[in-house]
Amino acid sequence: MYELDPRLAADTIMVGSLGISDVLLMNDSRWFWLILSPRIEDAVEWHELHTDQRQDIDFEIANVAAVLKGMSSCKKVNIASLGNIVDQLHIHIVARNEEDENWPNPVWGHGNRVPYHEDASDQIVEVLREHLDLEIL
C-alpha cells in the first residue's frame, strides 16, 4: 500500500490528487515549488516503472508545470527527480526567476526554509485546485 514518505509529508502541504500522483506544495515560500508523488507502492526509480505509468506521470508533470508557469509567470520551470535523501519516487517542479533566491543555482540545500503563512498557502492551494482537475483528500 502506498504511503507518502514522512519527510515529504513534513515538508509539504497537500494540494490534492491527480490520476496517479499526489500534488504537494513545498512549504518554502522562497520558491513556488510543487512535488508530484506517484501513488505507486515501493516506487523508487523512474526507469523501473511500467511504460503506461511513466506516460501517465509525464502527462501530469506537463499539466502541473504549465499551470505553475501560468500562475507564476516564471522564466524557467525546473523539473527533477532526485531521491538522494527521500528515495520514494517524487518529482520536483519548481518555478524559477532571475530575481529569486539563489538564482541560477539549485534550490536544494540553500539557506533555511521560509514556511508560508497559512493564509498565503491556502490561497495558492485554492488556485491550484481551480486550475488542476484534482481529487481533494
What would your notes on this structure say?
The chain is α+β, with helices and mostly antiparallel strands. The protein has one domain (6-131): HIT-like (HIT family, subunit A). It has helices at residues 6-11, 51-72, 118-131; strands spanning 12-17, 21-26, 32-38, 76-80, 91-96. Strands 1-2-3-5-4 form a 5-stranded antiparallel beta sheet. Strand 1 (12-17) and strand 2 form a beta hairpin. The longest helix has 22 residues, at 51-72. The chain is globular and about 40 Å long. The mean pLDDT is 96.
Key terms for this structure?
HIT family, subunit A; 137 residues
**Any idea what the radius of gyration is?**
14 Å
Distance between the termini: 17 Å
Biggest sheet architecture: 5 strands, antiparallel
Number of helices: 3
User: What structural category do the secondary elements indicate?
Assistant: alpha+beta
Helix and strand layout, with pairings?
Layout: H1 6-11, E1 12-17, E2 21-26, E3 32-38, H2 51-72, E4 76-80, E5 91-96, H3 118-131
Antiparallel strand pairs: 1-2, 2-3, 3-5, 4-5
Short summary:
The protein is α+β, with helices and mostly antiparallel strands and 137 residues long. It has helices at residues 6-11, 51-72, 118-131, and strands at 12-17, 21-26, 32-38, 76-80, 91-96. The protein has a single domain, classed as HIT-like (HIT family, subunit A), CATH 3.30.428.10.
